[in-house]
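Hi all, posting the design record for the shared folder.

TITLE: backbone redesign
STEP: 1 of 1
STRUCTURE INPUT:
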């Protein structure tokens, strides 16, 4: 179990490092680095901040004259998203930021993000992560991790209630009760 945990942590760290590198490369491809100083906001605690700092230090070594200021953002995801939205509205956003996945499409729909489609072209992400970052056929953020999600249901209890446990809820008619769902 310990080896698996170390392997998972290593995979998350590597994914974070690659994502930070993609973000920085995306900024350089758009000419955003002309300012000679980049500000990167990072949420999710000190370990994530350390990972981003490592990548940004490597970037600075390979790009003399460009400084990357990595800033940790305190608070929960909701607080960080609110702070980011306020910074964008005030015209003073960071050049790159950690962004909660569920907020990507909301921010993109409001025109608050730069698209990253070209910058990540050719990089394969999990389909669910790509979908979460895509609006109008364009990607608006770079996924930095994925999560396994599942639904467990007690078939016996659904059957006892007279419901068909094998019917996909998405296929039900608008009233919510399909022919095969009706109580027996």
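Okay, here is what came back for every position:
SEQUENCE:
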């Amino acid at each position: 179990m310990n080896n698996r945990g170390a392997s998972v942590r290593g995979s998350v760290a590597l994914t974070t490092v690659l994502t930070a590198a993609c973000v920085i490369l995306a900024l350089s491809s758009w000419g955003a680095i002309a300012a000679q100083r980049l500000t990167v906001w990072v949420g999710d605690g000190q370990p994530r901040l350390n990972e981003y700092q490592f990548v940004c230090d490597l970037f600075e070594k390979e790009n003399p004259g460009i400084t990357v200021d990595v800033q940790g953002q305190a608070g929960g995801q909701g607080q960080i998203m609110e702070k980011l939205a306020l910074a964008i509205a005030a015209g003073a956003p960071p050049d790159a930021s950690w962004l909660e996945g569920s907020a990507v499409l909301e921010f993109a729909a409001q025109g608050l993000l730069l698209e990253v489609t070209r910058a990540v072209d050719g990089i394969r992400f999990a389909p669910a992560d790509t979908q979460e970052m895509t609006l109008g056929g364009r990607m608006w953020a770079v996924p930095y991790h994925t999560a396994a999600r599942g639904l467990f249901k007690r078939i016996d209890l659904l059957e006892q209630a007279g419901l068909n446990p094998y019917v996909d809820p998405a296929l039900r008619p608008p009233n919510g009760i399909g022919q095969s769902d009706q109580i027996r």
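COMMENT: Residues 2-29 form the longest helix (28 residues).
Let me know if anyone wants the other runs.
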